[in-house]
Design a protein that fits this description.
The complex is a heterodimer of chains A (534) and B (702). By secondary structure, chain A is an all-alpha fold. Chain A is 75% helix and 3% strand. The longest helix of chain A is centred in the last third of the chain and has 37 residues. The chains are: A mainly alpha (534), B mainly alpha (702).
């Protein structure tokens, strides 16, 4: 492995360079922005593929690490690397950005700004998924949100004002919470480094240091409470981003009002930032706290799944429906993660908890990837629908399969992937999550199964109303997918089949890292269960 | 004998049986619509190869029982040992373990695969004629191949997960084919209903699968070292489950939920009659002969789990018996030829489930196999009649078809007698096996399923003979009242528009030859299960259970009831053929009860008023709750806006904020953001920065 290739830095800043090139384009060459953006994102995709090619799934630690001091005064390093927790997210970002750019043809105004922002967004996302030092991780985290705010605000639908405001307010609250938490951690420990904090927390040293720091500040607090306080702050930041019920009400508006490409990025990748925060920060740095909160978190995961699915059934706006569907599917990731955190035990024939939890965690990571692919395809095709007809109501269509069979087939496959039909990608992740979660948190997993049925209800309803029945004569001239649209859709659908039939290459990427995280967890879980008498 | 030491060649290639149709489906999905012959040729060619392979598997597993060097003679098949030949492979690794899948060749697989592939091949050929004019002909064969692959996959698998995967895929194929004429709203609605209702059952199945996986650490049914999921049942039977059942019983109950959904058992039977919206070959293949029997096959496959829990078996027996009698009563009062057969299917599946419940696994499987032949025959015959009568499906608008369609009539006649259980046709032997098992189940209340089953025999014979009289005997009543019924089978009308309206006509050979072949099977296959002397199929499928002697009481009762049913049907409909527009004589005889039966015991209405309404209300309530929550957060947001406004003013005056530099970079990228320069976003960012700075300052000072 060539550690000095700076491949992660190149990957992260390739889109930013593209964005700068676009910003420098003269106004009369505005239409070249699209070409430059596509070129930069495809280049980033190739870099990500080469990263994937060189990535060693059997190695549990970080790879392609780059670490140099940046701001010595407050001990900030430029520290990046990937492991099994992040590699799929890097690939997903690299894959979905060109797809989103291909779906951007309805954008007519301010082309340079639009494409520059999309590329800036991609840099922010790469940064979030590779940074290992809170300080610059947070810069990327915010750098991902600001372009998205403008994309919703400037190129969105009619209700953008309210949607963009809500999106920003919510994420602002989350960001402030995260910032405060990490400032406190820095003051207590003197480091921003995720890896050092993980090791510190594993040794049980983090909470006492936090308590000591707070006591120094004149606040009498036990280590348990100090840890818990900070855990809640960090949890808030990620729960809003994912989103977890009840921190989700920004989601339907933002997803609905954003332009198609924005929705693809929001639902496909940005929602994964929140889940990724659970994997990179909450599980490793707050293992005791998250284990102690496992039961309330199980409730939240279950409610996210079930309420998201039922809310989707009630929607008459197709984009809102898929927005809630997206929340429902992210809930499964959370269920898998909570299963890892839960103090598993009790009498059972097979106490192979490590494998069960590893299964749930691999499933959650794989589900993040799969959901990204599937929801991107769904939102993109909804975009095509809206582009052609200017409508997106459940009852506005009918019989479109007669005039657009390819469209109907590709949408049907994506919907089936979302329903969790075996043979397509969604099934594997959901199966692994439920397989791992079932023995650990049986009642929550059992109730969450309702989500699977509800998903079938709203998506089949969608297909029935839009594609089946007599053709709505208004859309008799509805064109089937164009070549450009096929180019954007077919790779995603092909990937759904591939990941559904051959999941091994993906799980091999994540398994050792997932095992490491679970192993880190098992003694911690036992310690907590002793303390709390669980 | 260790099965791993000697793997017959066919066991090593068993995976080809499902894979070939899957591959055909994949190729044909990519073919353009105009490649009609390629698609159909591919589908039929491949299913014929799968059928031949299945016959090889059957031959191998029969011969295996005869192999002297294996220490087995014909009579040795009666020893308490089931033979399995296993192939396993790893799908993916996780943690420190791996998920293995596999295939199994054993008598159950061989018998089921042979029936499924043979019936599939015949129905594929029949479809050539039936669907010849359909504009989506190519897609039809794509979906049929997909179905055949998935169905054969679940038959040959040795793994409950792979079983579940194929199980869901047959559900998908069923969904696609019920909704094949997707522009008909009723077809689209029926497809959705089928998928969702079976999905409810599947969710239980999925939960059982998860639990079994955790409890045994594997989902392979059998493994070479005898640690398969079904080989650990004794341990599971000793562990506690839910509701006072053992863990084995709990898992069996959950798995049975899947069977209830797929096999149309009460209370999840409501989708199956609606599924008749699909083209008739689909009804024959998927919703009569094979897929709906998959639930029975599932229970037979996981039978050790059920055997470990008498309570669950009792429930299975009663659900089967109740479904058998309920569906039979509904079939009596239906007028649509396909719906009668659909309820008949539900009823016969009830018999199979009852057979499983009373401990007669081999009897249930025998009935499943025989039913596959004669019900496919009846559906294809009905398709031929519909085709011949210009897409009429109402039996009161038919009549006298016998003289126009002799081949269809005689084959249908064989099928009817087979279903009614008349000696010596297939249904006689298999239904007798099921009823005998029910009779031997126990005394007192345990005789209930047997009594219900006997009543069902009478009703079955009655509704089948009613159908035969109304369709084939008397004079043709169709022709003039057709205008009002054009919507029925409109697609089929488009399909066969070349035929002149008027008298019925016999179907082409491509449709009648499969009928004749199926009729031959329906007539003679029953002899594979002769009772008394070495009941072949019984020993073959379930050697663990000793053969039982002939029970002349059961045979006598069932035959007498069957003849009584035929006689009653003939008295009511055959002696004096109905005139056109004459009402159903049953109306006068049964009165209000007939309306109750015609309206299917109001099950659909009941579910509409309870489950469906509950889901709707729940969705609306959740949505409203969400809007309320949204209102609260927007209120908080407005509050924050006010705060930030003050903060902004405060900043402007008090702090020369360095953050403007950071915001400036955003400004450089988009000069167009001028419209936005109302300070709002910047003020939020500033709020972040300022709050952080104040806190840091405070901490440092301390």
């Amino acid at each position: 492995m060539d550690e000095n290739s700076h491949i992660l830095s190149w990957l992260t800043f390739t889109p930013l360079i593209g964005a700068i090139v676009i910003a420098l384009l003269p106004k009369r060459n505005e239409s070249a922005a699209r070409g430059v953006a596509l070129f930069a994102s495809v280049l980033a995709l190739l870099e990500a593929l080469s990263l994937w090619w060189r990535f060693d799934g059997a190695y549990a630690g970080l790879q392609f690490v780059e670490q140099t001091p940046w701001i010595a005064a407050i001990r900030v390093d430029y520290f990046v690397g990937v492991d099994g927790l992040s590699i799929l997210m890097v690939l997903l970002t690299a894959l979905l950005t060109p797809v989103a750019l291909l779906a951007s043809s309805p954008i007519r105004k301010h082309l340079r700004a639009y494409y520059a922002l999309m590329l800036a967004l991609q840099t922010g996302l790469f940064g979030v998924f590779t940074a290992l030092n809170f300080f610059h991780w947070f810069i990327f985290w915010e750098a991902g949100l600001i372009p998205m705010f403008f994309i919703i605000k400037l190129w969105g639908g009619d209700g953008t004002e309210r949607a963009a405001l809500k999106f920003f307010l919510y994420t602002l609250v989350g960001s402030v919470a995260l910032l405060l938490v990490f400032q406190a951690i820095y003051l207590a420990t003197g480091t921003w480094d995720f890896i050092m904090l993980r090791d510190l927390a594993a040794g049980g040293g983090l909470a006492p240091k936090l308590a000591a720091m707070l006591q120094q500040a004149g606040i009498a607090i036990t280590p348990e409470r100090a840890g818990m306080l900070l855990f809640f702050g960090a949890f808030l930041g990620f729960a809003i981003k994912a989103p977890v019920w009840p921190f989700h009400t920004w989601l339907p508006d933002a997803y609905t009002q954003a332009p198609t490409a924005g929705t693809i990025m929001l639902a496909g990748v940005l929602s994964k930032m929140g889940v990724y925060g659970f994997l990179r920060i909450l599980l490793p740095i707050f293992p005791h706290e998250i284990a102690a909160c496992a039961t309330p978190l199980s409730w939240l995961a279950m409610l996210t799944i079930v309420l998201g699915a039922f809310a989707a059934i009630a929607q008459l706006d197709l984009k809102r429906m898929i927005a809630y569907a997206s929340m429902n599917h992210v809930g499964y990731c959370l269920l898998g993660i909570v299963a890892v955190a839960h103090a598993a035990g009790g009498a059972s024939a097979h106490a192979d908890w490590v494998n069960e939890k590893a299964c749930a965690l691999n499933g959650a990571i794989f589900q993040m990837f799969n959901h990204g692919i599937t929801v991107a395809a769904l939102f993109m095709m909804l975009g095509f629908l809206e582009e052609r007809t200017g409508r997106r109501g459940l009852e506005d269509f009918g019989g479109l399969r007669a005039v657009a069979p390819v469209f109907a087939a590709l949408f049907g496959i994506s919907a089936m992937a979302s329903i969790g039909l075996p043979g397509l990608n969604g099934f594997i992740g959901e199966f692994m999550i439920f397989k791992g979660a079932w023995p650990v948190i049986t009642p929550f997993a059992a109730v969450s199964l309702i989500g699977l049925v509800a998903t079938a209800i709203y998506l089949l309803n969608f297909i029935q109303r839009v594609f089946a029945g007599p053709l709505n004569e208004r859309w008799a001239k509805f064109p089937d997918l164009s070549r450009r649209e096929l180019l954007a859709t077919v790779p995603l659908v092909a990937l759904m089949f591939f990941a559904g039939v051959c999941p091994a290459p993906f799980i091999n990427l994540t398994n050792t890292a997932a095992m490491k995280l679970v192993m880190l967890f098992q003694p911690a879980v036992q310690a907590v269960s002793r303390v709390t008498g669980m | 004998m260790n099965p791993a030491t000697h793997i017959p060649w066919i066991a090593s290639y068993l995976w080809l049986i499902p894979l070939l149709p899957f591959a055909a489906a994949g190729v044909s999905a990519l073919l353009p619509q105009r490649c009609r012959k390629t698609s159909a040729g591919l589908a039929i060619g491949v299913i014929v190869v799968s059928t031949l392979l299945s016959f090889c598997a059957l031959a191998e597993s029969i011969l295996h029982g005869l192999e002297p060097h294996a220490g087995r003679t014909w009579s040795a098949m009666q020893t308490h040992e089931v033979w399995h030949s296993l192939i396993e492979f790893t799908w993916f690794n996780y943690g420190t373990t791996s998920l293995k899948l596999g295939f199994v060749l054993d008598p159950l697989t061989a018998a089921m695969a042979t029936m499924v592939s043979l019936v599939s091949a015949l129905i594929f050929i029949y479809s050539l004629g039936y669907m010849s004019r359909d504009k989506n002909f190519t897609r039809f064969f794509t979906f049929l191949s997909l179905f055949a692959g998935a169905m054969l996959g679940l038959v040959v698998t040795n793994n409950l997960l792979l079983f579940f995967i194929c199980w869901e895929l047959v559900g998908l194929a069923s969904y696609l084919l019920i909704g094949f004429w997707y522009h008909r709203p009723s077809a689209a609605a029926a497809a959705k209903k089928a998928f969702i209702v079976t999905k409810i059952g599947d969710t239980g199945f999925f939960a059982g699968l998860l639990w079994l996986y955790h409890a045994t650490g594997t989902l392979q049914f059998y493994t070479p070292d005898h640690t398969g999921a079904l080989e650990q049942v004794t341990a599971l039977a000793g562990l506690p489950g839910i509701m006072g059942l053992s863990l084995a019983g709990t898992i069996a109950l959950l798995i049975f939920c899947g069977a209830v959904g797929k096999s149309g058992q009460w209370p999840l039977h409501v989708w199956l009659p609606d599924a008749m919206e699909g083209p008739t070959p689909v009804s024959a293949l998927i919703h009569a002969a094979t897929m709906v029997a998959a639930g029975v096959f599932l229970v037979a496959r996981t039978y050790p789990l059920f055997q470990a829990s008498p309570q669950v078996l009792t429930l299975v027996a009663w659900i089967g018996a109740f479904t058998a009698i309920m569906a039979a009563t509904i079939a009596v009062a239906q007028n649509d030829i396909k719906r009668i057969l659909a309820y008949s299917t539900v009823s016969q599946l009830g018999y199979m489930v009852m057979g499983l419940g009373v401990g007669g696994m081999a009897a249930a499987m025998f009935h499943l196999l025989m039913h596959g032949f004669f019900k496919a025959l009846l559906f294809l015959g009905a398709g031929s009649v519909i085709h011949g009568c210009h897409n009429e499906q109402d039996i009161f608008k038919m009549g006298g078809v016998k003289k126009h369609m002799p081949i269809t009539f005689w084959t249908y006649f064989v099928g009817t007698l087979a279903l009614a259980g008349i000696f010596p046709l297939a249904g006689f032997w298999s239904k007798d096996e099921v009823l005998t098992a029910a009779f031997r189940w126990g005394g007192g209340l345990h005789k209930g399923p047997f009594v219900l089953g006997c009543l069902g025999v009478f009703l079955t014979a009655f509704y089948m003979w009613r159908q035969v009289c109304l369709v084939f005997l008397g004079e043709y009543r169709g022709g003039k009242a057709r205008a009002g019924h054009k919507h029925v089978g409109q697609e089929e009308a488009e399909t066969h528009h070349e035929t002149a309206p008027g008298v019925p006509h016999e179907s082409p050979a491509v449709m009648t030859v499969p009928l004749i072949i199926l009729a031959v099977f329906s007539a003679f296959m029953g002899f594979s299960g002769l009772p008394e002397h070495a009941n072949f199929i019984h020993h073959f499928l379930n050697p663990e259970h000793a053969p039982h002697v002939v029970n002349w009481f059961v045979i006598g009762t069932a035959s007498a009831l069957a003849f009584a049913g035929l006689g009653a049907g003939h008295l009511l409909y055959g002696v004096k053929p109905l005139a056109p527009d004459e009402p159903d004589p049953l109306k006068a005889k049964l009165g209000k009860l007939r309306d109750f039966l015609r309206d299917k015991w109001y099950c659909d209405e009941l579910y509409e008023a309870t489950v469906v309404r509950f889901v709707r209300i729940a969705a609306v309530v959740v949505d409203l709750g969400d809007r309320l929550l949204d209102g609260v957060t927007v209120g908080l947001g407005l509050l924050a806006r006010g705060v930030s406004f003050f903060n902004f003013k405060f900043d402007e005056q008090a702090i020369n904020c360095g953050f403007d530099g950071g915001c400036g970079s955003v400004r450089v990228i988009g000069r167009c953001f001028a419209a936005l320069q109302d300070g709002r976003v910047q003020s939020y960012l500033r709020l972040v920065a300022v709050t952080a700075a104040i806190l840091a300052f405070w901490f440092f000072l301390k």
